[in-house]
Design a protein that fits this description.
The structure is a single chain. The protein is mostly beta strands. It contains two helices and six strands; from the N terminus they run βαβββββα. β5 (about 90-100) and β6 form a beta hairpin. The protein starts with 8 loop residues before the first strand and ends in an 8-residue tail after the last helix. Residues about 130-135 have low confidence and may be disordered.
Length: about 140
């Protein structure tokens, strides 16, 4: 499926890396992408699994992949939302070279807990904690 994407930059909010098996990161690297990841939650199958989730234990990651190369990248803490299983969440801030320009790219996976306005809290924290310089006005 990933080979069918014709994109220079991909953000995968939930990529899975099974224990002891090839996961998404290895596939992306084989396709020529440079990859930045941040793990956010361990998964172990249990009796309530409905067949739609992975059947192997492993780790869920936020993944940013670029065929243009990653000049640099870092994780940016965006906080936690009450009762959200992953706990503390992070975004990825990367610099990607596009021709002669350097472009800032952000990858993030916000909480879906709407009762606590999770997505808005994560985005506000990211905005407060990161100041983008350069570019227009």
């Amino acid at each position: 499926m990933l080979a069918g994407f014709d994109a220079d930059v991909l953000v995968l909010p939930e990529s899975f890396e099974p224990d002891g098996r090839i996961g998404v990161v290895a596939i992306l690297k084989d396709l020529g992408y440079e990859v930045a990841t941040v793990p956010f939650m361990r998964f172990a199958p249990g009796p309530r699994d409905d067949g739609r989730r992975p059947q192997d234990p492993g780790i869920w990651h936020l993944t940013l992949a670029s065929r243009l190369g990653l000049r640099s990248w870092r994780t940016v803490p965006i906080g936690r939302v009450l009762n959200a299983p992953p706990g503390e969440r992070f975004a990825i801030h990367a610099e990607v070279e596009v021709g002669d320009a350097v472009v800032a790219v952000f990858a993030r996976h916000t909480a879906s807990e709407l009762w606590d306005i999770g997505p808005a809290r994560h985005l506000q924290t990211l905005r407060r904690g990161h100041r983008v310089t350069g570019g227009p006005g």
